[in-house]
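Here is my example:
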Amino acid sequence: MKKKYNLYYRDTGAMASFVVDTEKFKKKDAQLLLDFFTWDYDKENNPIEELLKKYTVEIFILVLSQNLNISGVNDYFDNEEGLICLDGSVGVELIGVNKFSFNEEEFSILINE
């Protein structure tokens, strides 16, 4: 069964969309990946959702710092130890990413003396 996951970061407009084929990529697979990195995550939550959150953070960093598109993100993930390629071949496909940009007019400044 395929499920679409959209992960949004607050009200910034940043979003990543995934399609997960739960016949190919199971909760135990996600759990193995979470355990590989010894990430801090909500152990009571679905491990697929927790893994997608961790991957989304990584994706946002890549998109913002290296200006990568979906193909570039897939290449990065495919070549990093412990990460899976997000092209759908193992059951997880990155289908969209909206990055956000910083606007200097949006900053708040707090000065302590």
